[in-house]
C-alpha cells in the first residue's frame, strides 16, 4: 500500500483549509475545486485512506450547501466507500436531509436514525431542529 508523506499531508491540509474558507464565503465551486485538488494528492488506492472519506464528505457538503442534492448525494455515498466513511455522523445527517428535501421520507428517517444511533440527539445540534423533530415524529426514540 502506498502512503501519504508528511509533505503530501501538509499540502492536503492546506487545500482543506482553503476549501473551508471558500465554503464559509459561499464560494461553493472554488471550495469543491480545492477539495478535489486535495483528493488528487492522495495516492491510489484512494479509498484505503480515511482522508479520502473526509474529502469526499467535504465535497458533498459543498454541493449540499449549494442545493445541488444529486451531486451531494453522489459525493456522500462515495465517502461511505472509503476507509472510515461509514461511521460519519454528519454524512448520515446530510443524506437524511437530502432525502427529506427530495421527498423520500422513508430514507430520510433511515439516515437520521443512523445519525441518532451514532451520537444521539447531539448529531442534530448543527442543523435545524426540524430534522430531529421529524425523526421523533416518525420513530419512537
Summarize the structure.
The protein has helices at 6-24, 28-41, 50-65, 69-80, 89-101, 105-119, 129-138. The chain has 141 residues and is mostly helical.
Structural class, by secondary structure, is: mainly alpha
Low-confidence stretches: none
The CATH architecture designation of the largest domain is Alpha Horseshoe
Helical content (DSSP H or I, runs of 4+): over 70%
Number of strands: 0
Rough outline: globular
Distance between the termini: 43 Å
CATH topology of the largest domain: Serine Threonine Protein Phosphatase 5, Tetratricopeptide repeat
CATH homologous superfamily designation of the largest domain: Tetratricopeptide repeat domain
**Domain module count:** 2
Largest sheet, strands/sense/barrel: none
Sketch the topology as an H/E string, one letter per element.
Answer: HHHHHHH
Rg from Cα: 16 Å
> Quick one: CATH class of the largest domain?
Mainly Alpha
Whole-number mean pLDDT: 96
Taken as a percent bin, the fraction of beta residues is under 5%
Helix count, DSSP H or I runs of 4 or more residues: 7
Structure description:
Helices cover 70% and strands 0% of the residues. It is mainly alpha-helical and 141 residues long. It folds into 2 domains: 1-79, Serine Threonine Protein Phosphatase 5, Tetratricopeptide repeat (Alpha Horseshoe), CATH 1.25.40; 87-141, no CATH class. The termini are far apart.
What labels describe this entry?
141 residues; mainly alpha; Serine Threonine Protein Phosphatase 5, Tetratricopeptide repeat; 2 domains
Amino acid at each position: 500500500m502506498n502512503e501519504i508523506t508528511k509533505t503530501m499531508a501538509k499540502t492536503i491540509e492546506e487545500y482543506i483549509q482553503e476549501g473551508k474558507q471558500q465554503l464559509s464565503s459561499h464560494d461553493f465551486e472554488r471550495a469543491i475545486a480545492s477539495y478535489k485538488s486535495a483528493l488528487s494528492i492522495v495516492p491510489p488506492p484512494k479509498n484505503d485512506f480515511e482522508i479520502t472519506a473526509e474529502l469526499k464528505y467535504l465535497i458533498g457538503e459543498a454541493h449540499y450547501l449549494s442545493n445541488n442534492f444529486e451531486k451531494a448525494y453522489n459525493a456522500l455515498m462515495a465517502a461511505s466507500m472509503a476507509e472510515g466513511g461509514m461511521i460519519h455522523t454528519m454524512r448520515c445527517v446530510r443524506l437524511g436531509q437530502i432525502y427529506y428535501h427530495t421527498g423520500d421520507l422513508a430514507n430520510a428517517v433511515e439516515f437520521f436514525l443512523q445519525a441518532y444511533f451514532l451520537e444521539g440527539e447531539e448529531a442534530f445540534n448543527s442543523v435545524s431542529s426540524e430534522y430531529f423533530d421529524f425523526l421523533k415524529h416518525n420513530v419512537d426514540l
